Predict the structure.
Amino acid sequence: MSRIALTGRLLVAAQFALIGWLIWPLTPQAWSPPALALLAGAIALGLWTLVHNRPGNFNIRPEPKNAGRLVTGGPYRYVRNPMYSAVLLFAAAEVLAYADAWKIACWLALALVLLAKVMLEERFLRAVFPDYAAYAKRVRRFIPWVF
């Protein structure tokens, strides 16, 4: 296994570990209106993303699938990584629901892991899809028109 592939797998493992820590322990939470709004936004964005980028086209590892295609419609018109944005919204909802400083640290770590994963993924996408560089200049990574 190459060093890049190993790095990708470690980032995926870190991503899922941090998500697990964010939802642990599975106890009743104080779902305030802002937490519910973030949760609803995460679910809506995640579902919208799956409508436009079907399972089978994307990979949880940074490497694109061999028969994958570049998706630029739907939520991908506004952000290059809408599923990661949905994960960060979900994690933010968990932070608000648990109201715990430890959860804030987990959210920040998750954001950094996803950023590292995206940067690695973009290296592959630029190599596989000639149109990706122009797309990346037009569309932000996580937050429309901002970042």
User: Anything to note?
Assistant: The two ends are 32 Å apart (CA to CA). The CA atoms of residues 31 and 97 lie 5 Å apart. The chain is about 65% helix and 0% strand. The longest helix spans residues 101-128.
